[in-house]
Design brief:
Blueprint (H helix, E strand, L loop, with lengths): L11 E3 L5 E3 H4 L3 E6 L6 H19 L2 E7 L3 H11 L4 E4 L4 H5 L3 E6 L2 E6 L2 E5 L5 E5 L7 H8 L2
Parallel strand pairs: 3-4, 4-5
Antiparallel strand pairs: 1-2, 3-8, 6-7, 8-9
Helix pairs in contact: 2-5
């Protein structure tokens, strides 16, 4: 996990509509960049729906929300449609952003060690500096906790 005070690494990737987004377009405002393992899985769906439900409140506080996973643009579009998601989801199948933000790690699942995306949430300030980082994310609680932390 990258530590608070670290300059956010550059990123560029397509969203669920195939539109390219990069770090530079978000400079000048705060944003949440959260990494999750897989579209349409129980934990990831709870987390995404929580961010979507709270999205108007994040915008009121001047904070954009961006999700990132290895899933394809088509998978993200289906996820957005199925769950009526309101925010940008970036597709990173080659793990460029995931690895730049130190979210690709060994994980233990039922005693088996595998490599995968570790659920991680970053709050990045207007200057592109990480001001909050959490890699002990509880999917269902993350959106509410991040919103509370902005108060």
């Amino acid at each position: 996990m990258l530590e608070p005070g670290t300059k956010a690494p550059f990123f560029e990737a397509p969203d669920q509509n195939g539109v390219m987004h990069s770090l530079s377009e978000y400079l000048g405002r705060k944003f949440i960049l959260y990494f999750y393992p897989k579209d349409n899985t129980p934990g990831c769906t709870k987390q995404a729906c929580g961010y979507s439900r709270n999205y108007p409140q994040f915008l009121e506080k001047g904070v954009e929300v961006i999700g990132v996973s290895r899933d394809s643009v088509a998978s993200h579009k289906k996820f957005e449609t199925n769950q009526d998601l309101k925010f940008t989801i970036l597709s990173d199948p080659e793990r460029k952003i995931i690895e730049a933000y130190d979210c690709w790690k060994e994980k233990k699942n039922y005693g088996k060690v595998t490599l995968g995306v570790v659920r991680t949430t970053y709050l990045i300030d207007e200057n592109g500096v990480i001001i909050r980082a959490n890699d002990k994310v509880k999917a269902a609680e993350d959106p509410d906790r991040m919103l509370e932390s902005l108060s």
